[in-house]
Amino acid sequence: MGLNAIITRPYASLVRSLTLRGNWRESELEEHARIGRVTDSSMMLNIVVRAAIDKMKELESFSWELNTKMLETVYLGLAQQPKLTSLTIRFPSSRHPRPTIVIPPMPHLRRLEITDIDPLCYPDDISTLLWKSKKLQELNLHWSPRMREEQEPSVMVHDYFRKCISAKQPLRVKKIGLRNLYALHTEEFNLAFDQTIVEDVTILTNVKSDDCNFMNTFVDSTWPISPPHIIRIKSIRQDRFNRRHADFLGNFTGLERLYFVNATPNPNDMRSPKHLEYPAPTPPFVDHNHNNPGSAPAYTPDTTPSCSPGLQASIRDAYLNNIIINHAATLRHLLLPSYWPLSSNTIARIVHSSPQLEQLAFATEFSSMETLGLLLPFLRNLVAVRLLVPTGATSSPQTPRPPKASLGRLSSCPAEDVFASALSLADIVEADDDILIEKFSESLADPQVFSQLRFFGFGWKAFELLDYYTIPAVPPLERTVESQSQSPADLVGEEVNGCREPYQNGLSHKDDGTGASSILTPAPVCQTPPLGPAPRTSQTPSLLGKRRREHELNPGAPPKKGMSRENPIEVSEFNTCLPTTLTNGRVWRRRVRRVGWDVVKRYEIWGLDTQEL
Question: H or E stretch including 20?
């Protein structure tokens, strides 16, 4: 009906984009294929589409996403469109014989996407189209996952670019995406692209989260990790990780956007069911000495080398080290996978070395939440942050389960029960939205610290931070022991019996189990001190340049009485991170609302966390 309206009525001149998507029924397909004929229904469909295209003089984008093959008559009609700049073609996925067509050149194309490529399903020849598309800026090629699943290296990459190679005219695309590529590398592939022009690279494999051996094949190992030319890649997006990819990141500098796509199914995805479990292949703690053989865990006979937690942890550390050393200074977007739960030290390294971050997504342990309130204020350009729930077991066999964190006394009894019984980050994500909104409204209310922050992701939930407002400050004798703003200065206090005590209202307050702290900074559990005097150890400099307090240098010294907020740390060091209390006895709060996928998808740490090119 839609194509009929375009052909018979004067609407064709208004069409700028046309997409054909769905399943087309072909009757007697096998009988027609046996005698070398196209079915009458498919022939009629292509004739109607060609008639509609001829009337669309302003057509700029065309997408064929039907399960039947596009015939030559449609290709010839598209080649005559002077304003066509974007083309998407879905090749057939059945092995019924079809006519193979050399796609004619379309010189005005700027974006080309070919999907469901299978050498055994009669794909069309795209070599001429690639050679003649001199204005092409974006190229996405998607192969069928069948070849990788069956370990069949039938894809010959040279065939797609053979005319560019023979003419010595490499493609000058800026953005390239490859999905489910399973092919041997040849030296001629380096001549197919001008690697000094490519700025955006996407490599996806569309595999399940529990398949550790997916990239460990002889075919994948033929691809080099050292680029033959100077490259200027600004963005990388991938969903599979191994040591070769990690070493590749260490061979150049200057990345601005790095996205590690979470494997499917992803419980942190806003569009996935909320009851998904959290399987994870890696242990929670980052060991930066991954080259130390003494730190590797002992393997059991049931543990394969490629899936062992020790090897996966070393690969993770290799990625993080190369990111911090080579790219952190220029990074603006960083999306880390949910099965890399980061320790406090690793989060501090990333924050300290990445001052330009605008969007950040990572997973952390529940015991490391205290660090977030200290570190996030140092990212002054941060617009969106996404806190992922670690997928799977968050404790290794040698590591005890994190203790229950006392997340604070809230105004309502249900909220108190939720935070008091929380054992993991996933427990807090499942809390009622009103409870989370109340905590975010208080924790992210400092306009001097979080003025740029607009969106906060929490597991599979997302919240938008709106305008600021003020409320009357509760008198010290009436208010509960609760911080007004989560900033580094608020969380610094005396240590009594090895436990840090937050300062409330300028005074030290001992934690008796009834105190409350923010979602971002749960109160740590006190440890019993040793009976003997604590030995004095050498003090390592702080990652963020903070001076040591006197009681840290001398653990045996008793805390000073009458300690005020300014005594434990110099105010000038965290002047912009102090809580903002107005002179008229009011404190800041911020309006927060729950938002859905349609709102956050324009931010890359959400929108690009998908298996689509």
Answer: strand 17-22
